Amino acid sequence: MIVILKENPDQAQLDGLLQWLEERHITIHRSVGSHHTILGLVGDTSSLDIDLISALDIVEDVKRVQEPYKNANRKFHPEDTVIRIGNLEIGGGTLTLFAGPCSVESEEQIVGIAKAVKASGAAVLRGGAFKPRTSPYAFQGMHIDGIRLLLKAKEATGLPICTEIMDASQLPLFEDIDILQVGARNMQNFALLKALGKTEKPVLLKRGMAASYQDLLMSAEYILAGGNPNVILCERGIRTFETYTRNTLDLACIPSLKTLSHLPVIIDPSHATGKAALVPSMAAAAVAGGADGLIIEVHNDPAHAKCDGPQSITPAVFDSLAKKLKRIHDITRGDREYD
Amino acid sequence: MIVILKENPDQAQLDGLLQWLEERHITIHRSVGSHHTILGLVGDTSSLDIDLISALDIVEDVKRVQEPYKNANRKFHPEDTVIRIGNLEIGGGTLTLFAGPCSVESEEQIVGIAKAVKASGAAVLRGGAFKPRTSPYAFQGMHIDGIRLLLKAKEATGLPICTEIMDASQLPLFEDIDILQVGARNMQNFALLKALGKTEKPVLLKRGMAASYQDLLMSAEYILAGGNPNVILCERGIRTFETYTRNTLDLACIPSLKTLSHLPVIIDPSHATGKAALVPSMAAAAVAGGADGLIIEVHNDPAHAKCDGPQSITPAVFDSLAKKLKRIHDITRGDREYD
Amino acid sequence: MIVILKENPDQAQLDGLLQWLEERHITIHRSVGSHHTILGLVGDTSSLDIDLISALDIVEDVKRVQEPYKNANRKFHPEDTVIRIGNLEIGGGTLTLFAGPCSVESEEQIVGIAKAVKASGAAVLRGGAFKPRTSPYAFQGMHIDGIRLLLKAKEATGLPICTEIMDASQLPLFEDIDILQVGARNMQNFALLKALGKTEKPVLLKRGMAASYQDLLMSAEYILAGGNPNVILCERGIRTFETYTRNTLDLACIPSLKTLSHLPVIIDPSHATGKAALVPSMAAAAVAGGADGLIIEVHNDPAHAKCDGPQSITPAVFDSLAKKLKRIHDITRGDREYD
Amino acid sequence: MIVILKENPDQAQLDGLLQWLEERHITIHRSVGSHHTILGLVGDTSSLDIDLISALDIVEDVKRVQEPYKNANRKFHPEDTVIRIGNLEIGGGTLTLFAGPCSVESEEQIVGIAKAVKASGAAVLRGGAFKPRTSPYAFQGMHIDGIRLLLKAKEATGLPICTEIMDASQLPLFEDIDILQVGARNMQNFALLKALGKTEKPVLLKRGMAASYQDLLMSAEYILAGGNPNVILCERGIRTFETYTRNTLDLACIPSLKTLSHLPVIIDPSHATGKAALVPSMAAAAVAGGADGLIIEVHNDPAHAKCDGPQSITPAVFDSLAKKLKRIHDITRGDREYD
Asked: Is the pLDDT confidence value at D286 over 80?
């Protein structure tokens, strides 16, 4: 950590700061410039509160050198994290396709789609039972009945299930669910993150609409620090000034997050673009860009889907897309080297 | 609602759509242009799912004419909402100052600050007991002990208390708290919003970092639709590319939200700027811009505050600021006319 | 165009509007709802000034149905535009690699890099002679001497040259340049765009940091409307809150712009990411996503480049990347269908 | 400047860097931490190219301590810059109102508005003769005829004139204009900035839609470094995800820019909000927030203005607004202390 002092700092305050740092076993290197004195703090600075130091009258600025996350940091865990669910491996060079409808609507619907996407190569069934909707008047999901239907689809196909949890109090209902999804709007619902940190369930953590890479990794850190190492990061678009697409898909997050962290990175082109016609090309781009997997909305009848119809592709489109993605992955899989 | 059809729409799909709309008692006005046919839908369109219509192959675009919120909409409730807590009135032309530390730290601290800010004209004491922190390693608040100390400060000063609730499960602990704050990161924690809708407690709802005015009003709508009419909107800065300030304070939200809605609008210059030196001028700007109140971080010893020190002002600065704000409010209070 | 009237509009103003529209040969379809009356305007509305109508007291909102650009619009020009420079074809299903240093520094440097990138498959040499730099104290390019060296590199390799023009007054110096680049900061320098519209030179038009797809297409429209049909669109990252990358690369612009327009779309992963380590994966993603080409910074000695060293890759990296891009293009080239 | 080295840096590269710095008379303070070595560079680092150092393999990150602008920096020029035009003083504690129509349309219009706004207290007449319009089909201004009419209005009222220059080649036409405006879209048109640096004309420099405070100050630096000290900074809204307002007005720029720089700061609430109804409250907020002035669009007949009608207020509204602004300024003018 680097502390930049204002010109002519008050000596008593400075002495106080230096003593306070020494008590915390921080070694201080001082550089005196013409306008600024700079303190280089050496030692375990992750426990120092940057805000506390910034607040001092004598301090102009404080800059972190070390990232504020440890468990999620590739520097301390150079090997890729691989999440294992039965025989399935997510991360470490594989390509995992999550597919399914936005919402579970009926047994026929979810089992039908599950069979179709499995036949095309999907390895995880996604589907919403609890739906976070901007409007209180929109369809909110089938809740516990939706969970039951997802488990029927699992029974019928053997596909592991990924579905969204919206509140820590719902955890008991998710006992048989394989991957718990935390939505973008809950990425900093710290009560939920702490509760998930106490489980061993794989968590698909979606990036918030205004979350930086560091924010996302700090939210992952909440889960990891709680004792649960099974976190999958998911980019689903950030909010920018562009309105043609629902959000702006930030694919540079793939090599960036994989440089900063050892956790798998999954891309959601459906929510990112909000338009079915854009999903295939962005899915292909994500695989070429090094994603560990994709989560794609597939619906047998998008025009009558209870939510997010415009961004869902049909099973037929998914089938031909999955074949192409595999071919791209064969070309690019060898490139994964992050340091 | 307006539906713009693609060129040469499939007649069978179009007939299906028209019939579906008629079943919902929607009257349709059709305009045929050279490239587009436009359907004007007249009737109660708030129950129509815009996504469902957008997903049809024959549809190029759907545009809402009516806002998707009702309870929060000034069109249906032209009079300002006034929140009453004892003799205190928030909204309707008054200026209410919320002040206090970011976090409750000790009885001495919170009671001392409460007395000071009351003497300067604050009408509500703010202070965090449950703190949402980006880092799992940062101070997370005193929890139930913090609540107890806030109630002691209330006892000592008579000031109503505003403090943040992070999860619906905490509700029983907040029984004696006067105003429940929902933080920016929880603005779309719908489980929490629904729980608050079932109480009668005033809720201070902070705008999320990437939330549009409409998103904020839809979150308010969750609480209002649940039966709780006591919602106060709060702007605390949005996230943009500018990094000098912690967030970008969007003061145009004041006349905008007051045009769209009848709910009171409060400004938080402390979190918006992240720098104590910018708080007084932005507080003055907010009052001149028509805010119903301010929520300001005040700490007797910012340099040793357990969080958010850099953005806290001292009781002395608050005292002179409050005097100036009152003078500005006297000039601008008569201007409030929204239609 | 759709005009939404306020409740109970003033009849005299409304009559005035209706007459004004009729004088412009616009047919009006009126839909009367419970709260709003909607006017559907049919005819050539592209000449109507949306601001003029919005300003009327009786008008609540105006929404365009037709895009405000014509020459750039795929609806009126369904076939892909293909830019031809000698035997080179840009657009229409080909993949064109632009490569070269940020700045021309010496004959040895530019000729050496030109030979290297040509051998690896680049079809256009890029290199800056006039450099837009944020700081007046940074290296501003070799100016006319840089142009001369670029032409020497063209002579030595046969590669067409793409370089940036910063002001209309520089046009005479660019007579032998093949492709004129308009930088992101000049995307709405309308004096420059108009001047380029009067030439026949292919123009590489970079998207501004805060420009929507429509803004970019309106800037292209300036050139096209002037009589120059040879415009290539280029995404180079937009500005968002994320600071890890220099900008945020928006690859969904590829299928979006190609749906809206017939113009070729080129991606610049170097400026978008600002980090050489991210360039190969984002280049691969862009090709998989359907880009018509890439513009990549290549420098034989990035650590001593006079500008933008951190984002330049070496000729060796470019060579292996180009091979991989070709393989990805072979898989994805057949998918290009936009309507 | 601080250079953070990667772990185990290559010794030869490091020696090369150290020698290169020494040749530039930079003193180096080295701090060795557990994971990072930090170099503190002391001396005149403003001439060092941060990109050049960042590009080195051994470097993890480089952080500037000193701002990259000198002439615009308050540290080196603690006194407020005051721009003098005849008896008018802009900056230094005064409040200057610029007012007038978006575009000059006729002699009657511009002279009439000039007289009206002068009577209400405006000190500068604004009006566009060359208009940057997003669409090539929109009204582009009256050009030289517009300049002539502005000068007639000056003759009739004595008000100095502020109007936009779009290209360096137009300079001769602006000989009698008092303040040259550089529009947001041209903020980084460096050819134009350099040309303005060679004049002595006051320049109103508008912040670009995606420009940080530092970017704005670097553009001012271009003009100042050229020898022209007369720069006025102008905030007119930045582009964010919010679409209700035309742009997002960032009033925290006022105390921020005045802390960083000695240049006057003027606010444009008309372009920032795009809605006439929001202009008065945001004008009041800007004055309370410490602005040195405002630039407001005033039109005698907004509904028939040739551009920007929706954001123009009438002379009557301006008149009552100006009175209120003066009263607010009387309260807040004493607060201006920046260090």
From this structure: yes
